[in-house]
Amino acid sequence: MNTPNTNSPLLRVRGIAKRYGDRVALHDASFDLWPGEVLAVVGESGSGKSTLLNAIAARDKPDAGSVEFQVRGGGLQEVFTMTEAQQRMLARTDWGFVHQNPADGLRMDVSAGANVGERLMGLGERHYSRLRATAAEWLGRVEIDPARIDDAPRTFSGGMRQRLQIARNLVTQPRLVFMDEPTSGLDVSVQARLLDLLRQLTRQMQLAAIVVTHDLAVARLLAHRMLVMQQGRVVEAGLTDQVLDDPQHAYTQLLVSSVLQP
Amino acid sequence: MTTATTEYNFAYLDERTKRMIRRAVLKAVAIPGYQVPFGSREMPLPYGWGTGGIQVTAAVIGPKDVLKVIDQGSDDTVNAVNIRRFFQRTTGVETTTRTVDATLIQTRHRIPEAPLAEGQVMVYQVPVPEPMQRLEPREAATRTLHALAEYGLMHVKLYEDIARYGHIATTYDYPVLVNGRYVMSPSPIPKFDNPKMHMNPALQLFGAGREKRIYAVPPYTPVESLCFDDHPFEVQRWDEPCALCGATDSFLDEIITDDRGTRMHVCSDSDHCHSRQQEQQQAPVPRPEPEQALA
């Protein structure tokens, strides 16, 4: 992380395909992700966005294709040929996964502090005071009152839960975070604060991120580049402003014109 | 003593079942702390009363064994009396209450105070063999965690204790790391007994009947209680000695003796307490004033 190899991408995805029975969920998706880059994947419901995300994050093995990740000090390595232990290690150190529903990514019955500290404990941190200090610091960074460190996420509001989930993922200083609709389910003002926070954190930590969203405003605010998906295919890819201001594909044009302007 | 009722096979279980259990025990001994599934049978006592322990005992007991059964350290509580009588009837083996004389000790929730020796076998009754069950209820998930030795979750539990109570408040069923590899539930023994498991010369077998798991700690195996660097593992302490024998180094039970809340502390291990009292009567050494505890 200290000396990012700027000559090769952080993540290289080639020809990912996934079928559910006869139904093609994902057809030949390929892209590169560079360190510190935020990529938005947009498209309507059922267009294969989440399938793509789960396949890249090795949560659901695709039928074809390769995902290579630049491991620390090891160059690009194929994720699917790693052992399960290596994949899980990657998933809780260099990667993060922010679920749409915070309850899927948090332990709702243990305190916020333990939620943030769990990854560190999994990596062998055995010093209570240090864990607690780190947890308090991270709660502060995601704008949760550190006085609530001992409260269970069950008592938190939706926006706080989502921010806690982000803190829990970022505590190991990952280089790549997968986000599945991180802002849907939140009201607009909370959404705006969360987006602001995410933008700040990705910039501070030089974090690369793949954000799945159906909200073009989220893509506009967060992402450097975007992929537009329709029926399991990537129909358009490019710089965010370019795609949103000058959409080329008919579907993208439809998508952009569908946004309500207040 | 061969007055066993002949309607039953020796030790109640049929030979094939015993062989199946012995296989599980062998595997458990080969992989210290690993939970081996086995085909738990229905036993003539309810789940939660020691169906796992009783099956393990039945599988390893031989006619020359001397059996001791304790329940919370005591030889004369219902559970202990019943299981002891069960094996008297079905095997005719000699039974004892003295820890040093026993070759096989079935226990619920205690390890005897007298040090165990080589050749002795401890059989623990286990209600919940999975130490992570509270935090991760999915069995498939916990199995993966064991397989990959991902035990961060156990420390989440201890962290929660400290966050809530200021110290590790788990006092029984305190998780241990066996042989540097598997995290194991030591059955609900008080954490006072955890250090006794470490490098113990006796063979320790654990049976969970309802959950259908057997696991083991072979003789002289390192058993380490989990802790934080700044919150080290500690055992319970008492301010007063045992009111009956004056022991200061044993696990004490608090007994309320009347309706006004008068209480006394006595050894939980009844054999340990009795033998100490007998020694004191034979060689009248000055007793460390037991009345003080009653006052």
Task: Give a written overview of the molecule.
The complex is a heterodimer of chains A (262) and B (295). Chain A is of the alpha/beta class and 262 residues long. Chain A has helices at 49-56, 84-92, 102-105, 112-122, 128-141, 158-170, 188-204, 216-222, 240-245, 250-257, and strands spanning 11-20, 23-33, 38-43, 64-71, 75-78, 95-98, 176-180, 208-213, 225-230, 233-239. In chain A, a hairpin with a 2-residue loop joins strand 9 and strand 10. The longest helix of chain A is centred in the C-terminal third of the chain and has 17 residues, at 188-204. Chain A is globular. Chain B has 295 residues and is of the alpha/beta class.
The secondary-structure element order of chain A is EEEHEEHEHHHHEHEHEEHH
The separation of the N and C termini of chain A measures: 42 Å
What structural category arises from helix and sheet content of chain A?
alpha/beta
Q: What amount of the residues of chain B lies in strands?
A: 15-25%
Query: In angstroms, what is the radius of gyration of chain B?
Result: 20 Å
The 3D shape of chain B can be described as globular
The chain pair with the largest interface is: A-B, 23 and 19 residues
Number of helices of chain A: 10
- The topology string of helices and strands of chain B comes to HEHEHEEEHHEEHEEEEEHH
Oligomer: heterodimer
Which residues of chain B sit in consecutive blocks of at least 5 with pLDDT less than 50?
290-295
Q: What is the radius of gyration of chain A?
A: 18 Å
Overall morphology of chain A: globular
- Strands ordered across the widest β-sheet of chain A: 6-7-8-3-9-10
- Report helical residue fraction of chain B: 25-40%
- Overall pLDDT score of chain A: 90
Helix-strand category of chain B: alpha/beta
- Work out the strand percent of chain A: 25-35%
Number of helices of chain B: 8
User: What share of the residues of chain A lie within helices?
Assistant: 25-40%
